[in-house]
Amino acid sequence: MPETFMIQKRLRKFFPDPPPPFSLTTPIALPQPTTSATLKDSFRLLSHDSTSSTPSPPFLAKFLALLDDDSGFVPPDTHGAVGPNHVMTSLNTEVIIQNRVGEQSGTNRMPLLAFWSALTNPSPVDVFDPRTLYDPFEKRWISAAVAEPTNAASAVLLAVSTDSTGNPTPTGNWLFHRVDADAQDTKWAGYPRVGFNRQWIVVSVNMFKNTNNAFVEQHIYVLNKTNLYAGGTNPPTLLIDPDPNYFTTVPAITHDNSLDTLYLVTESPGSPGQLRIST
To answer: What is the value of pTM for the model shown?
Structure first.
């Protein structure tokens, strides 16, 4: 991993303000994290075998989601999730919601910045690196991103849908949250990764110096899932991994709803084919 992360200049295309396809609710300002601790992991290195004798299942359906609009975002950071009846796709430029055969309903397509427009005081200016998940146990959609690179206003953004009925849809109401990425305003956040289990939603980010974009450490935000889904304002717990050799730790998306432990994985530096598994 290079010591300095170089930013490619993003050139934004100006979008007209479309009718909001989401019922945007009042944003919730989360307090600063209550705990700032060094992440001390019990970890083990696992050998990885990339070969597999089991073929992937065939496609049941395929359709176009979002194309890169060539507006200058390199890379477009494509991401998305599938729910019981919808597909939500997010890029650095746009968000689109379709049904599971690719049909778009109404105006359920908008610029990424417009999706986060419910956040105010201050309003986001440069939102990037979106992530989108679906929680099948609580029937909620989860979206995350980061904002304001190389800036003292750098923030981690998180939103959860409020509709948990038998037909959960990402086109309904959302609860939006912002967390200050660095209380000292000397570092900015990038590369968010999101995971969850039955108790927690976890967002990890890489932290870089505002002055020269050098990688410093990882921040891992742990949020109580029940409180978050209920519209609560419990502050996240902040864990810090200061080891500069580890980059982009990924929280697991846990599909065992009886499991209390949430695992995180990252590549082990200097050990090709090995991973660090943390709890």
So the answer is: 0.80
